[in-house]
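// run 5 | inverse folding | seed 20
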């Protein structure tokens, strides 16, 4: 089930939104430095859904921050070849004084999209995340799941190229445990919605989680990071697995995750 190099090369034809070449990231210097990532090689193909899995503190958020340009690597090289990557966090982080539609419009406003066009785009995206008719609600009037839907619509607005400068570049969504604060039923519904939206938009997604089931359900590929420092230790091609194959993949990946955690604990 582990993807071969040949498989990876087949998947990686065309423009890749993200490529990591031997990326390292350390916080601080000298003996007290915290090495969060070490020699990470990773790529995401256009339109691909990749789940990044690892134990708490292994550097998953650090890796997403590097892709988003919120931080810089200490070593190695990152190629980001997408129209502006957008991030969805664990908490929706909406502007409380803006309506749902206002929040979705915000990145469009910042990109200089004319008013009528951004209104129409926000309405279209709110419909895509099944919040049609709720655009005038403020965040406090919405449930946690609804707020994450707004955050997803805003991220989609942000990653769409409206200026023409990113023409031809694939879009990329970065998602940092976006459903982990939600109850199990809402999480299940939103996972299904995310798959639908991914298929409808064709955006590439790099999705961080520490939930193996979630990773196998959502991803085409699951990439396992070791415990600190985070390194890619294994990856699995889980595209289209359902039923028993999916359960087998979950067991196998759970075993590998436990192994990297216990190796770290023993170190
Ligand atoms: N700004 C920073 N300064 C110092 N250390 C940091 C900083 N950001 C992250 N770290 C450290 O780097 C390591 C990786 O952190 P990161 O948040 O990327 O892990 P994670 O895998 O996302 O964890 P979790 O699953 O718990 O969210 C941790 O040891 C963390 O303490």
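// decoded
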């Amino acid at each position: 089930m582990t993807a071969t190099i040949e498989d990876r090369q087949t998947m990686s034809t065309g423009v890749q939104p993200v490529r990591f070449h031997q990326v390292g990231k350390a916080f601080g210097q000298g003996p007290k430095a915290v090495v969060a990532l070490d020699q990470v090689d990773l790529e995401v193909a256009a339109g691909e859904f990749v789940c990044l899995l690892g134990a708490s503190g292994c550097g998953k958020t650090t890796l997403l921050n590097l892709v988003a340009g919120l931080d810089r690597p200490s070593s190695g090289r990152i190629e980001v070849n997408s129209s502006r990557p957008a991030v969805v966090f664990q908490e929706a982080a909406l502007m409380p004084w803006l309506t749902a539609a206002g929040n979705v419009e915000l990145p469009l406003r910042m990109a200089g999209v004319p008013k009528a066009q951004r209104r129409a785009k926000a309405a279209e995206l709110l419909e895509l995340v099944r919040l049609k008719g709720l655009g005038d609600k403020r965040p406090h009037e919405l449930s946690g799941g609804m707020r994450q839907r707004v955050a997803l619509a805003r991220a989609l607005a942000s990653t769409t190229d409206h200026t023409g400068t990113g023409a031809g570049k694939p879009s990329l969504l970065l998602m940092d445990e976006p459903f982990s604060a939600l109850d199990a039923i809402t999480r299940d519904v939103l996972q299904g919605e995310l798959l639908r939206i991914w298929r409808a938009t064709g955006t590439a997604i790099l999705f961080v989680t520490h939930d193996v089931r979630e990773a196998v359900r959502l991803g085409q590929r699951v990439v396992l990071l070791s415990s600190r420092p985070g390194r890619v230790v294994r990856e699995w091609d889980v595209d289209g697995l359902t039923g028993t194959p999916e359960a087998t993949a979950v067991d196998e990946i759970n075993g590998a995750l436990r192994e990297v955690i216990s190796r770290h604990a023993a170190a």
